[in-house]
Write a structure and sequence with these properties.
The chain has 318 residues and is α/β, with parallel strands linked by helices. It contains 16 helices and 6 strands. The protein has helices spanning 9-14, 21-31, 33-41, 57-72, 75-78, 84-95, 103-115, 121-129, 160-165, 192-207, 211-226, 231-237, 239-243, 263-272, 286-298, 301-304; strands spanning 2-7, 151-154, 170-172, 248-254, 278-283, 306-311. It is globular.
Length: 318
């Protein structure tokens, strides 16, 4: 019998490794501020004007905090919901100033110039991750050291499990830094609905010969698609791992929030493990507990299995 360990960002944070989304934003602000400003504008977030008489350090701190809460706290969920109205307005304002003949070609080029910057996101994710030092992290769980019996699934991009605990075979579902994974990091949302919706709208506009509307709908779909994390494809690529979960009699989840983009992995694990499998789900705060109970209820895991929710402090030896 085996235990399947599922570790998320909270695992790294517990080891003193700063990997929350807010830390990635700090990296972008220091190293790629123009990209950050443009990216956040796609979610109707614009920087304060520090030349205004009302601008103060306290106002900036309040603004920074609100941006973290509005976008970066649950970054991968939020990026699947860009400011579509703003994109529409931009397209509509162009229509009156452009000749109708060939407008779709002109607008398509314009959207690629306007929104193509987003393709750099994954590159910057890797740059950021390569600045993170895990060498000072100390062991906090003795039973994990050189563990060769159990299975490990990590939603993290770092090499904490490999470096600190000497674990050899870790499935980094969303890729990672080169020292622990051959697949580059993948950061993205799971909102396929918005992509399909605007592809459908674009097709309808094409059939009705409304070229400007076809163009902006495709541009919205392209933008969202460039940030899409295809969980179905990831599960398929790792089918051997999931299919081998029949020997698992315990699943331990720690440091996970299980956002919408991650639920398909839970569904597959639920399908593969034994009915008598016990689930131990560790949470950090009361808010986390509320969300996790909701997720495990919606997926049906709480009804089909023994599920125990425990404070994350109880997981660690030190």
């Amino acid at each position: 019998m085996q235990t399947l360990y599922i570790f998320g960002n909270g695992f790294d944070i517990a080891h003193g490794i700063r990997t929350p989304y807010a830390a990635f934003r700090e990296f972008l602000k220091e190293n790629h501020e123009s990209f950050l400003t443009t990216f956040e504008s796609m979610y109707n977030i614009r920087p304060l004007d520090d030349t205004e008489p009302w601008y103060t350090k306290e106002a900036q701190e309040r603004w920074d905090k609100s941006v973290i809460n509005d976008l970066w706290w649950s970054f991968e969920e939020k990026i699947g919901h860009p400011d579509v109205e703003g994109m529409y307005d931009s397209a509509y304002s162009m229509v009156d100033t452009m000749p109708m003949e060939g407008i779709i070609d002109t607008m398509n080029v314009y959207w690629r110039e306007q929104y193509g910057f987003v393709d750099k996101l994954q590159k910057y994710v890797l740059e950021w991750l390569q600045t993170i030092d895990t060498s000072q992290a100390m062991c906090k769980k003795d039973s994990l050291i050189n563990n060769r019996n159990d299975l490990f699934m990590s939603f993290n991009y770092t090499d904490t499990l490999e470096k600190v605990y000497g674990i050899k075979d870790v499935l980094h579902l969303h890729g990672g830094i080169p020292s622990c994974c051959e697949i580059a990091p993948i950061m993205g949302h799971g909102n396929k609905y918005i992509i399909d919706l605007y592809r459908r709208k674009a097709k309808e506009a094409q059939e009705e010969y409304v070229e400007w509307y076809e163009s902006i709908c495709n541009a919205i779909a392209d933008f969202c698609e460039s940030l899409y994390k295809d969980t179905d494809a990831i599960i398929s690529e790792n089918d051997d791992f999931f299919s081998a979960l029949w020997d698992v009699n315990q699943v331990v989840c720690l440091g996970m929030s299980f956002g919408d983009v991650d639920v398909p992995y839970l569904d597959r694990i639920e399908y593969e493990v034994r009915p008598e499998t016990k689930w131990l789900v560790y949470y950090h705060s009361d808010e986390d507990l509320k969300r996790l109970k909701s997720v495990f209820g919606i997926t049906g895991i709480s009804r089909k299995f023994e599920v125990y929710f425990r404070k994350s402090d109880n997981f660690w030896d030190r």
